[in-house]
Amino acid sequence: MIIHYLLTAIKHFRTQWSFSMINLFGLATAMAVCLLIVLYVYRELSYDRFHAEADNIYRVSVHFDMQDNEIYENWTSPPMGPDLLEAFPEVINQVRLSGRQAVNLWQDGSFRTINRTYFADNTFFEIFCFDLLHGHPVKALAEPYSLVVTESLAKQLFPEGDALGKVVRLDDGERHYVITGVAADSPPNSHIQFDMLRSFSTLMEESRSNMTSWGANMGFQTYLLMAEGIDILQFEKKTEPLTYEKLNYQFEGMGVHLTLHYFPMKDIRLRSPFSSEAEEAGTIWKVWLFSTVALFVLFIAGFNYVNLCVAMSGKRAKEIGVRKVLGANRASLRKQLYFETLFFTTLSFACAILLVELMLPFFNGMLNTTLELFSMPWWLFLFVFLFFAGFFGFLAGMYPAWYMSSFQPVKIMKGEFWSRPGSFQLKSLLMFLQFIISMALIICTLVVFLQVRYFYTKDLGFEPEGLIAVRAENREDADLFHQVMDAYPWVVSKSISTSFPIGASYMEGILPEGAEPGFLAHRFWADLNYFETLGGSLKEGRLFTREDGLETSNVIVNETLVKKAGWTSPLGKTIDRSGITYTVTGVVHDYHFRSLHHEIEPRMMNVLGARPAHFTHPFWLLIRYEGVHGGDVILALQEEWTSVLPDKTFYYTSVSQLLDQQFANERNFGWLFFTFATVAIIIAMLGVLGLSSFAAQKSQKESAIRKVMGASVRNILFRMSGAFLKWVVLASIVALPLAYWYMEKWLAGFAYAVPFPYWTMVVSVVAMVMVVLAVVTSQSIRAVRKNPADVLKAE
Amino acid sequence: MIKTIELTKVFRTEEVETTALNKVSFEIREGEFVAIMGPSGCGKSTLLNILGLLDNPTGGQYNFLDKEVSGYSEKQRANLRKRNIGFVFQNFNLIDELSVFENVELPLIYLGYSASERKKRVEEVLEQMQIMHRKNHFPLQLSGGQQQRVAVCRAVVAKPHIILADEPTGNLDSTHGDEVMNMLETLNKNGTTIIMVTHSQRDASYSQRIIRLFDGQIVTEDKTTEFVLTAAAQ
Description:
- The complex is a heterodimer.
- By secondary structure, chain A is an alpha+beta fold.
- Chain A is built from 22 helices and 23 strands.
- Chain A starts with a helix and ends with a helix.
- Chain B is of the alpha/beta class.
- Helices cover about 35% and strands about 25% of the residues of chain B.
- Chain B has helices at about 45-50, 75-85, 100-110, 115-130, 145-155, 175-190, 200-205, 225-234, and strands spanning about 1-10, 15-30, 35, 60-65, 65-70, 85-90, 160-165, 195, 210-215, 215-225.
- In chain B, strand 9 (about 210-215) and strand 10 form a beta hairpin.
- In chain B, helix 3 (about 100-110) runs parallel beside helix 5 (about 145-155).
- Classes of the chains: A alpha+beta, B alpha/beta.
């Protein structure tokens, strides 16, 4: 019987080729899109879950509560972890990681730059489940000047031998490290990606800055392994007294309340509110949007399948009738029709796999991912297969099987098949739902697109083009390189500061005059040319004129700080910081010094000469160039750097490229969303194509009679299109508010967002009407143009 | 074999009630060849559908193989039908997507025969009806006569007790029509009961008895010879 079912299914596929292909294309494309999204969502949801203790690992963050403003920073100071471990039995272990650094590794007289390196405690491999292939998990990072490299890096460094025990030189080539461990490459679903880990004890030994105070050197990430079943909110409260004793007292009287928070590690990828993650984070909205699209695509494809099957049932009525006459009962017919659907969905799934393999490189390129179809766990693959081919097939096949098996042979033989009214009602309902989804998707796509475009076309308040930032570890190096840049005619302007133009910066509690109890502000130090080099603009007052003398007690602030302090005439106002008073001499227009995901916050700038000596953050040399190609500039800078500072790593960032990179993710996401939504709409329109073809066939007799009675082709086409268009109009009543509600919520998640563009609603309705008109007319015109005499004779 | 007592079929719509069969009573014995005749709309096909267990009457009794079946469910009717009745239609009703072999094989599939037995029986009957050489062809590749021959093969392959034929020559020329009627006659001679609805007196002459319907009622039940003579005298 199964073979008979299979042969029948194949025969039907062949004899109803065009309908079968429409259905197959729709289902396979929808499954491929869903499969891609499943891969993506699984990767996102699996982030950091491979650690055995993933549920109990928390990252310490600092919460600044400033009455009307809250800031979360994931940077902590070196003693926090060990102190928490010592003071609270709930903490089982802790590991500290430095910020990600690029270092030079010297080998055979030359060096290569290793980009992803961290200093890490020796508890790293105890707490995290990164595979240590060679070396002792606890001892590998215990001693100063010991390091662990990844397998890939080990192979690059020592292609013919074992890396373990080998000595390598880092930084200026004078520091010798012993390779004490080789770790497997970090899994792609880890928020910590490293090529090399150096022992934290090295840092403790080398550092000349304060490594024992909670309030200094907040440039580290601290992870805590907590005991099973700990209520983390209770623990937060429990650590408040220690936080106050160690840290909060510094902010007393400034209205700033500091607490430590413990952010679940497994949420870092999707829900991180922190701007300074080493890898891209906070992508839960992408997961939601893609999942919604996947669901929509699946619904649309399912509705299509049902509609096309029911539409095609007219052609199968005779077969069903004959089978019934010959002894088939409803159950056996239902079995046969289910089997056909399963055959179809299985075939579609196979095609979908091929499509996914073809689409993955494009998808990976767009989302900056490394997804592979067969890297999916077998159980997930099996689940997806059973879901698509089995469950989805069962659902999609249910109605057609029930519907077709209910045909009464007597009626079929009498030719009364077409008169069933119920079938068309269901088809209309499904089509109505498809129109709702399609129109909502058109609106969502346009809004996503506009928001993404807004992101990369928004005026940032400075000029990122032609701006390069070069990092220097100390003021001497910065000065030296600044000086040699004089020789280059294409350098229009240059400046030394402690601030990287785009990204998080140092924050301090300040007490502006008349704005008690104060608030937190980003603070940095820069020389006289900073704003000229940056391309920012002065709103009022003046910029710095010298680096010493009275100027060291002056400060330049941004508009947001003025607003927050409630000042109407800011010039001459004072800001108190830890007992030192600064006078505002200038106000600059707001500019985006962090990504557009963050609102502009208060910022103040002191002259570089006033920078405290103990300050350990690096210096940034900003260089604005003109008249040469950016690539040539970088080559020239690198050459110059190597000649004047041969032992130091040349680390640079092209500001426009960095912004491009940031925007590229959003832009690619926008394109991908557009692609998926277009696929969904095309599938929906294929359904309309099938249905209109069915309607045209069905109404041939009616059209012929109308023509005999004097109706023109246009009259009849208008009437046939109207049957579809009324559903478009009805669907718009549901789709428009639905899309508005969803996208308003989505836009609310951005610090800077476009206002909801109402015109997208009009566009979605007009586009849907146009497409439906085109599709219906194309299908109906042939049927309507037939000679009515021929049609009526055949009837 | 078949006995109806005051068999009635009424079709109802919202506004109209049409009596297609009005208290029809008759009996058909095993091995008979009976023709049902009458003008269009007299209820011939409705009667054949009820006799063939494709439809239920709205009143009266229908005894099939000594069982009262008028209240049978669709499933019970399908079960009884596939074991006992073969159908031949005016428009052949072959499934276009299936080959000759597959069309003839269908009833055996629903009866649960094994593949080897199906093959044996289908080939046997195709040989008998001299259409074996066309077994891999599709219906649309055959002439009308050949298609009806295939339909007869399909009707007899499960060796039913009774064959119901609805205007079996209605779509055929006289040569092919005679061919089909001869096949039915042979089957009847071999013991199969045949009930045939027809407009054609020529086809009716192959039967042993004619039931004539008018407005859903039996007006006469004649022996074929008498009928033919009466017709000739008129």
